[in-house]
Design brief:
The protein is α/β, with parallel strands linked by helices. The protein is built from 12 helices and 10 strands. The structure holds ligand C2E and magnesium ion (3 copies). This is EAL domain-containing protein.
């Protein structure tokens, strides 16, 4: 019995770990295939200006259209891609493909929009990133592109991140601090980095109906952002009350399921041609102050 116990307690490397490793390797090779076969696609979620109600930009959200498993959300594959360099290739694809969509809409007479893309911390180590931005923006003003970065970008290698952000800024590209308020040292980053936009995390928006504290946080962040000459976007707007509260407190833009879910790139031209999505914010906002 002692022998049995000894055997069983020797658990440095067990079957579950072997299964996990082989699953991770399988996912990694499937992801490389997905990159090579262009199995990724973008969903675009509108952002609306609260001073006019206009739809003026789209955030690109990547999905993996798996040939058998269907649509896979980014939290299932971005972390794995960030372990290595696959995230670099994916990130560059999101930028070039996203801007191609924006150009296509413009050519089709469906409007001129800005594109926002998400960059994770690891992507600042991509030494081809800045050249790629420049190449993608040959025929477009740089301010048609925004980089959404999260505060954790700055935990590691913040000098490199700051330098990439400055180079992007020099091309006219704007930078937004995503999920603002959920990371570390938000306030010091606002001083140190070339940030143009604060994107208030949806965890602050959801409780504004019930919680006075949340309302104070939201209005104070808007006020702070404006004093620092920055633009504020609120994400995760799910109710009309959220939207009207933000309008009343001079938030600059809003995004969320109330206004529009992220739209499949393949459906976007038809959706814009119909025209309803452009009217979504106007239909909810207080018209007296538009
Ligand atoms: P994020 O940048 O904060 O993106 C917003 C997420 O919130 C999206 O989820 C969006 O579908 C969701 N969302 C939008 N409006 C609402 C709302 O009103 N209510 C609720 N409950 N959710 C809302 P998604 O597409 O699953 O993306 C999750 C995260 O994955 C993103 O968070 C972003 O950090 C990351 N991600 C997405 N695309 C990319 C990419 O191309 N590159 C990188 N590095 N990360 C990406
Ligand atoms: Mg984002
Ligand atoms: Mg966000
Ligand atoms: Mg968020």
């Amino acid at each position: 019995a002692a022998k049995e116990e000894g055997k069983n307690s020797f658990h440095f490397f067990n079957d579950q770990m072997l299964i996990d490793i082989s699953k991770a390797l399988e996912l990694e090779s499937a992801l490389q295939t997905a990159l090579d076969n262009e199995e990724f696609c973008l969903f675009l979620q509108p952002k609306y200006r609260l001073d006019s109600g206009d739809l003026d930009s789209f955030e690109a959200l990547v999905r993996w259209r798996h040939p058998e498993k269907g649509l896979i959300m980014p939290n299932h594959f971005i972390p794995q891609m960030e372990q290595g360099e696959m995230i670099f290739q994916l990130g560059r694809w999101v930028i070039s493909h996203g801007l191609n969509i924006i150009r296509g809409l413009e050519r089709a007479g469906l409007g001129s929009y800005k594109l926002a893309v998400n960059l994770s911390a690891r992507q600042f180590c991509d030494d081809k990133l800045v050249d790629h931005l420049q190449a993608c923006l040959q025929d477009m003003p740089g301010d048609r592109l925004e980089l959404e970065i999260t505060e954790n970008v700055l935990i590691h290698n913040s000098e490199l991140a700051a330098s990439v952000m400055k180079q992007a800024n020099n091309l006219g590209v704007t930078v937004a601090l995503d999920d603002f308020g959920t990371g570390y040292s938000s306030l010091s980053y606002l001083r140190q980095l070339p940030v143009d936009v604060i994107k208030l995390d949806r965890s602050f928006i959801a409780p504004t109906n019930e919680s006075e504290e949340s309302r104070h946080i939201v209005t104070s962040v808007i006020d702070l952002a404006h004093k620092l000459n920055k633009y504020v976007v609120a994400e995760g707007i799910e109710t009309k009350e959220h939207l009207l509260f933000l309008q009343e407190h001079q938030c600059d833009s809003a995004q969320g399921f109330l206004l529009s879910r992220p739209i499949d790139e393949d459906e976007l031209p038809d959706v814009l041609a119909k025209g309803d999505v452009q009217q979504m914010a106007k239909s909810h906002l207080n018209a007296d102050v538009l």
